[in-house]
Amino acid sequence: MLFSKNTKAPLTTDSMSSSSYSNTVVIMDVIRRTPCHPWWRFILIVIILSLETQLISSAPDFTKHLHSILRNHTAFACENHILSIVCPPRTSVSVLSAFYGRHEVIPNLCPSVPNNTVEENIHCTSAVAIEKVKSECQDRQSCHVSVLSLFLGGDPCPLTTKFLQVSYKCQPQHHRTRLVCENGRLKLLCKNSTVLAIYSATFGHMLHGSPSCPPEAGSHSDMERNVMTFGNPCFPGTRKHLRVSFACVPRYLLEDVGFVSRDPFMIPDYTHDFPEKVVLYFVSGICAGLVVLEIHYNSSRSDGGYFEVITQGEGRTEEKPSGWLVLSGNFPLSFAAARWPLADRVPISFKVLPGDHEYPKCRTKRTSYEWYIPKGILKTGWMNKHLNLVPALVVLFYELDWEDPQWKEKQSECATKVEIVRTSLQGRNTKVAVVLIQKKTPLPPGEDLVASERASALCNACDLSGKSLFVLPHTDHLVGYIIRLENAFYEHSQTYYYTEIRRVKSHKEFLNKTTHQLLFVRHQFKIAFFSELKQDTQNALKYYRTAYSLIHELRAHETNMLEIKTMAGFINYKICRLCFQHNTPLDAIAQFRKHIDLCKKKIGSAELAFEHAAWMSKQFQSFGELFDEAIKLGLTAIQTQNPGFYYQQAACYSQDRKQQAHQLCQTEIIYPTTDPLSGTLDFYGQRSWRQGHQSIDPPDTEKEKTGILALQIKEKGVPHSELIIALLSNAVAQFKKYKCPRMKSHLMVQMGEEYYHAKDYTKALKLLDYVMCDYRTEKWWGLLTAILTTALRCAYLMASVKDYIIYCMELLGRASTLKEEQKLKIEKNLTKVLQNEVPDAELECDPSSVSAAKSLWGDRMALAGANEVTIEVQDYIPFIQCKAKFLSPSFHVDQPIQLQVFLKADGPNPVSFSKLAVSLSNQEYNQWCIIESSSQNTMSLVPGKTKCYNFSFVAKTEDVGKKIEMTGIELLLGSVRGRCVFLTWRGAGGDIASPHEALQASRSSRRWGRSLETQEQDWDNVTLQHSTMIISRIPKISVQLSHQPPVLNNEMYCLNVTIRSQEEGVAKDVKLTAGLKPGQDANLSQTTHVALEGSKICEDSAAALIPDILLGDLNPDQKLEKGIFVRCSTTGPRIFLFHVAYFVDTTVEGRQIVCKCHKDEIVTVETVVPFEVSVKFVSTKLEPLERVSMDIPFLLMTDVISSSPWPILLSSSSLELFSLTSTSPDMKSQLEQTVLETGEGASECFCLCCPPVIDNNNAIATGQYSIAWRR
């Protein structure tokens, strides 16, 4: 059995395998063995009817991500193909439904095999398809399913072409789930301007257990959940619950595309075959904020109802324009539901309008340009007209079956509606199509003769071609029909835009370059725009480039300069966007640089120079946004080429605009009574008071002056700082992203200055304070001084006392580059603050803000209990420097501990202070490390001079072996009569400008004490020493060892210890610890034994170290001897320790203390073998024997050879026999009292006999040979 280290629970391989297998079974049961099958799964169907476009000021990319996970998706594939499902990152597939089989005969959706004579089964389905699809796709980001009958549970209808259709959602990995039991109430809550988005709702019963239903505080929507509401999906008596998966999304996400449909039940009943959807409609109906688009449905209209969709406003340009069409008549909501999502469909957008909608009137076509003089380049409403007002195709939806009994009447009515649409579109090339909504599924082409005849009649009545008439069966599965309609609509729109392009091109032959230069630009732009709507981006880019070249061929003067720049800027934007779209970023950058080079000198009127700066700023901003969008779509940027540089340039031009506006715009001028800027512009970039004027000289000089004056007055109201801050913020974000710290810091300084000019001093101070840390570290003293000066003004205008004191001290310090007179003024204000007086106003402060600041300062000074300020100056560069050190890294306990504090002032005048205190890690010593001023002793610092203060104290004996650290230094400026400012340094002082000095972070406390003032020292040579160690007193005794090495194995070896006292007093309670030094090989401690007596051999149980052997007291110059005996049973070197400890009374700075002293002596001794013994058997003739015979005498001979460096005495020897017998009755020792020198040997012989063996054992024991010896 194994034990887990963390849980201490027994674990076995079998139990772990069993647990894992059990978990697998549970999961399978939950998914596939639920008793109340099927589950009621439902999902919100969100309907989008909007233009498939994006504005320049589009929402961030995460909005698209949220859109993709808030809607349902549908994927389908024909038999023998692969169905692919892909969800965005950090989401997973949640399968809602799966259909495999054939429901209706749809010609373009998985058509049948050619020449198939077998009638296809149009009502077949596989019951297990959803389980198969779930097993492949559920909870995965992407999956690929083979549409094969073998894989999908068998062939439900052989010889029939089948398809697989899967409805799914992309469920985020991080979402909320709430459960409530039957007859309970579920409360869903969203805060902070967010609204509910429900991903799924399940009503039923899980196999394993019932969920807990904890109450939720607060509610956004309440749902009483019971079988009366949702029906009963399970067997009677089954315990059920409701599970809702949801998330809270920002409200603006919903507002971007519209508001919420308040009544989800105002939807045509096309869900009769899907009763589970009613549950979700109930949930979504009482949870406001779920539908993503504003949809107003009016069922009371006589034309069958219509939908009104909020679209983009006029004057906004499209990011990716696409062709759009109008749907009118009895438009079914099911079409919109099946039309969504748009990501994998043809790029068309549609708007639902009533059949009698009035379209813009078409003006009379021009037949000749001979006498035509254009008044401008491009009309302001032209793009909006083709994006939102004039459709490429109008589709009329009309309910009409081929077998309708009122066919004639409805045919006439349909023709009338078509004629109304055509009349409204008179003069336009817009196509018209009709879609018949029918209840029955149509027969294959050619089989329904009635349908063919009536279709032909309807086309004749409506004057339609056969390609403009479509049938839409109102059945459950509309995907195939919708895709077919989309493709047909897309082809019609392509034809329309192709026709428009040819129409514009046909005008070229009537133009001349003398009077129609503007028309050349206009027509090239229109061709490019129509190509873009046609999704032909290559040709669009080509014609945009041509238009751009032509516009710079125009003669530019002050009258038309703004129009040229406006159109050039817009065309340049289109070119750059298309280059990024084509993945050619270098072309986009080259185009933009060319654009700036061509336009940067086209300033126009000098009185409106701020307009040119604003235009330049907008160019850089727009390109930065395009660049940033391209990066989000996969483009790789680098540190030296990223959108941050363009945002920075945009901010620079905005700053120029601000400066020029201050210079050109006068403050006392009154706005003209007749507004010259009123009215709408007919052409982009023209002046409202002289529209259509193209000559060099303005038509009315007075109107020109009045218009310029009005523009200048309006410019005064522009929030320049806000614009600059927004651009700088974007640039900072980019430089932070691409790791450009210095650029980021530089721009943050500019942001802080703009906040200062905008009078938002709190944000300005926050930004500047953040940046100052970097400039202090990198020692940019000039830049730091400029930032500190601005920060000081902010602190003054905010009346922030602490910040004001900090910046005053830093501007007086060594890092400041201010002149002497400026420092004197700052020092004067600092003195006033310390005396609790209102400081003088700082230079260059806004006069309107100074009076408010003085009032705030008066309130601060009158505020009781707020006259103490603590400043940690370690992170600043103050005008007082501080360093401290212990005089030694260690002190003996009988020595006073000494430390020094060095102070130096950098201000213009001497600085007085009231108190200096040092805080230590042991606060009991703090009382000795403090000094305060008095009437007799005033403390001050002379500028540029170093002053040293000494502190000393006596350590406690219990602190021996401990470290004492400086935790802080505190200096008090001011007094209790005014304002007390405590300057604190962590550790031993230093500041941020001294990175080589060790800065220790800790808290400080204030105590009282005494100090001694010393002479001046060189500041640069002072080093920090923030800690010291307390060590024991130096012992005044001698310990001597006398012995005769080496140690002989197993002898009682004597080491004599002689202790002599050299103390002036009595050494009390002397103790000796002797023996093997700890920390050596463990085997040595088991084979080494120490004893105090050597008269007998010590036992194996004796210790290797004897502690605290009491020796008594030692008087001065008294000697004491002690013998220690050691027995070593193995050879090798050993280290022996002799530790002598005692107590002695001593005096330190007049204080009597008892010191514990000790002295150690260490000796290394080698252990060797004293002699070697060998034994051999020989015959009586001295011949070697390997075996002996019974009852025949033989000789046993022993040889002893000395290996000791000292002579050894063999006291006696003996042989104790076990089985053998001796031939002589008396076996006396032949080696008794024999002395052997090194290398000498001795031998003795015994005559023995082997008796008969009884147990037939050939081997017998001889006996034991013993030798007694000594040195």
UniProtKB/TrEMBL annotation:
Gene3D superfamilies: 2.60.120.740. Residues 77-171 form the SUEL-type lectin domain. One of its GO terms (molecular function) is carbohydrate binding. Transmembrane segments: none annotated. The keyword Repeat applies. Pfam families: Foie-gras_1, SUEL_Lectin. InterPro entries: Lectin_gal-bd_dom, Lectin_gal-bd_sf, TPC11. Keywords: Repeat. CDD domains: Gal_Rha_Lectin_EVA1_EVA1C_rpt1, Gal_Rha_Lectin_EVA1_EVA1C_rpt2. It comes from the Eukaryota. PANTHER family: FOIE GRAS, TRAFFICKING PROTEIN PARTICLE COMPLEX SUBUNIT 11. This is SUEL-type lectin domain-containing protein. It comes from Knipowitschia caucasica.
